[in-house]
Amino acid sequence: MTREKSKGKFGRRLFLRVTAKALAGVVGGGVVFAESLAQDEHISGNVGANSFPTEDYDWTEHRWAYGIDATRCIGCLRCVEACKTENGVQQDAHHFRTWVERYVYLEGEEKPRVDSHHDPRNIAASGSEGKYRFDNRYKDAKVSKAFFVPKMCNQCQNPSCVQVCPVGATFRTVDGVVLIDQTYCIGCEYCVQACPYGARYFNELTRTSDKCTWCYHRITKGLQPACVEVCPVEARIFGNLNDPSSDISKFVEENRVQVLKPDTGNGPTCFYVGIDKEVT
Predict the structure, then answer these.
(1) Which residues touch 28 (CB under 8 Å, ≥6 apart)?
(2) Three-state DSSP class for 99?
(3) Mean pLDDT over each residue of the chain, to the nearest integer
(4) How far apart are the C-alpha atoms of 96 and 130, rounded to whole Å?
(5) How confident is the model over 253-279, as pLDDT tens digits?
(6) Is 68 a member of any domain?
(7) Please, are residues 214 and 66 in contact by the beta-carbon 8 Å criterion?
(8) What is the CATH number of the domain that holds 39?
(9) Sign of the dihedral defined by the CA atoms of residues 160, 163, 164, 165, in that order
(10) pTM higher than the cut 0.85
């Protein structure tokens, strides 16, 4: 995602000034980015019909969030395939914007066994690094409990990745999505190391960091993220928290939701149902 330099209300100079202001608030007092940015007088006077990223999208009316129902996920990995196709992610088992982990509890064991599609045995089972599946290694085991957990960028309210970026290439939008401006990223990988969720990776082709954006180019046009659209069991839920009738608002309201690693203080906006304490 790049910001247009020649026109648009959210110029580079304004972006750096507001980001610095927001960062100062986070470091000094834990101010939520969305609130800090939305209250900035320069931004509030310029958003609306001409706001970033498109002229007809008003990001002040949206507060995007994501829900995952682990009790529904079947580990089909269609979401991974759709994400790679939609966003041009390398077609191998080691680069991803979203991934799915399998948690298996065997009888007599207190800790789960965890693997993902980039596990060597799963790669061997698929026959190619460009195809994704889970093997059947537990077919003869005594399994007491098992479930799948989709993961991605948590689009945090207080993102540590934004705090450590030395050039302001990583930023949080007013509507709550953390993006990377590839034209300014210098590939230092500080953000990759700072993310407590392992949601970022270094793209060797572009020499920049990359991550899930909740398909920002789609959601600002009224579409769903690609992963949500292809999920056959509706385990992924997305929408606008500012709209009480949205699917995500109902999901958060009607379920006892959890977030990953709440102790980090990052404030994730990806909400889970059906996971246990071993999921981090």
Answers:
(1) none
(2) strand
(3) 86
(4) 12
(5) 999 999 999 999 999 999 999 999 899
(6) no
(7) yes
(8) 3.30.70.20
(9) positive
(10) no
